[in-house]
Amino acid sequence: MKIYLLTAAGVIFLSIIVSLVIPEGKLNKTIVFVMRMACILVLIQPITGIFKLSSVSVDEPLYDYVYICKVYSDNQSEQLEKLLAEEFSEECKCFVEIVHDKGKFKVQSVEVEVNFNNDQKLSEIYAYLEKKGYINITVYAKSY
Rg (Cα) of the chain, in Å, rounded? Predict the structure, then answer.
């Protein structure tokens, strides 16, 4: 509201100054008309907000980050499954959780479910994921 009042006062003040400075003649009428139109447009600006056609406000994000994180998480999970299958020759199910934080997508956690119960191999997978830079890693054997 403060910005609106300052803008309205500024346009009216500018209009008065311009109308006092410009010389008499044909150009005077045109400039005075333009300045009056500018004043009217500034004064009716709050009324035009009532007739907004768009329902999107400026404060709402334009992207659905929850959906993007889900798609990104699914893709990362699939790629990690392929990578671990190549590296360890074992089938596993991966769940990579991606979150959007401060304008960046980050890995929140990683879960790896394997079909075998070999503690040494589980430790190797954990160490491998740590070396790759993953955080909040959970590696466990599938229970039957």
Answer: 32
